[in-house]
Design brief:
With 145 residues, the protein is α+β, with helices and mostly antiparallel strands. It contains 3 helices and 4 strands; from the N terminus they run βββαβαα. The protein has 2 domains: 70 residues, no CATH class; 33 residues, no CATH class. Strand 1 and strand 2 form a beta hairpin.
Length: 145
């Protein structure tokens, strides 16, 4: 059985750290635990999905065949809105979540690029150049230009 990644804890210089490494081509889902037993919340980590691109034999990323894009709201924990400071923190977090929802919508519902119509480069034929000159002259004589 192959592992999907590794995790290590660091205790250096009075600070604690957690490093999660995902193996190439693998995905790890971080799931929040039940109330009072949620290790992610206590570590300040949001629940979500961690993915590493697959690598070829030379170490280059292999493009994914999947068009699936994962979006995270960035919403975790509980909010105490009984105090002004708690309510402001909840408002700030909810505004951030709203922004993430808007970004996800815009990314997944972007209109297709409009193709350029006609010849956009090169030179016009001498006939069309002369005809355009005649139209410009007529427009000038009629007072439209």
């Amino acid at each position: 059985m192959t592992s999907v990644g590794t995790a290590s804890a660091n205790y250096a210089s009075g600070a604690n750290g957690l490093k999660i490494r995902v193996n190439p081509g693998k995905t790890i889902e971080l799931v929040a635990g039940p109330a009072n037993f949620d290790a992610l919340a206590r570590l300040g980590i949001d629940a979500g999905t961690l993915t590493a691109a697959a690598k070829d034999s030379k170490g280059n990323d292999i493009p994914s065949d999947s068009d699936v894009t994962a979006f995270g709201l960035g919403l975790s924990g509980t909010f105490d809105i009984s105090t002004r400071m708690g309510a402001n923190a909840a408002r700030t977090k909810l505004l951030s979540v709203l922004s993430n929802v808007q970004k996800a919508y815009q990314k997944t519902n972007a209109p297709p690029a409009i193709p350029t119509v006609g010849n956009t480069g090169g030179k016009a034929s001498p006939y069309l150049t002369a005809q355009l000159g005649s139209y410009n002259l007529a427009l000038g004589l009629l007072g439209g230009g």
